[in-house]
């Protein structure tokens, strides 16, 4: 199985062997997985990306958005639904915390 959701038989229910050997506990692993699930809820969707870049202006809108709209940046408007900077920032923070 893949994924971190226990109801789908995901990996949240057990610590990978490599991490267990490094001293990661079941509790710590579950905390990391819970944090990751919260962050992943902010991840970009295909529909969201299509709406941002293609509707209603099609190619012209796609070019303008790609040129002038830093949707993945860590800026003051990252909370807007069309910007994914909050997801990029938080996934980076999660990776730094896990890799400590």
Q: How would you characterize the overall build of this protein?
A:
It is a single chain. With 100 residues, the protein is mainly alpha-helical. Helices cover 54% and strands 0% of the residues. It has helices spanning 17-21, 26-40, 46-54, 58-68, 85-98. Helix 2 (26-40) packs antiparallel against helix 5. The chain is elongated, with a radius of gyration of 18 Å. The two termini are 27 Å apart.
Describe the protein's topology:
Layout: H1 17-21, H2 26-40, H3 46-54, H4 58-68, H5 85-98
Helix pairs in contact: 2-5
Kindly list the characteristics that best describe this protein.
100 residues, mainly alpha, 54% helix
Give a quick summary of the entry:
The chain is mainly α and 100 residues long. It has 5 helices and no strands.
Taking the sheet with the most strands, its summary is: none
Total beta strands: 0
The portion of residues assigned to helices is 40-55%
Strand content: under 5%
Rg from alpha-carbon coordinates: 18 Å
Intertermini distance: 27 Å
Task: Note the total helix count.
Answer: 5
Query: SS-based structural class?
Result: mainly alpha
Low-confidence stretches: none
Q: What's the helix-strand series?
A: HHHHH
Mean pLDDT rating? 75
């Amino acid at each position: 199985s893949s994924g971190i959701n226990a109801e789908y038989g995901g990996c949240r229910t057990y610590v990978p062997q490599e991490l267990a050997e490094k001293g990661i506990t079941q509790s710590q692993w579950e905390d990391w997985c819970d944090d990751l699930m919260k962050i992943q809820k902010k991840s970009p969707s295909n529909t969201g990306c299509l709406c941002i870049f293609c509707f209603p202006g099609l190619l012209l809108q796609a070019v303008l958005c790609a040129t002038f709209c830093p949707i993945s940046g860590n800026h003051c408007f990252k909370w807007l639904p069309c910007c994914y900077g909050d997801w990029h920032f938080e996934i980076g923070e999660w990776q730094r915390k896990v890799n400590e």
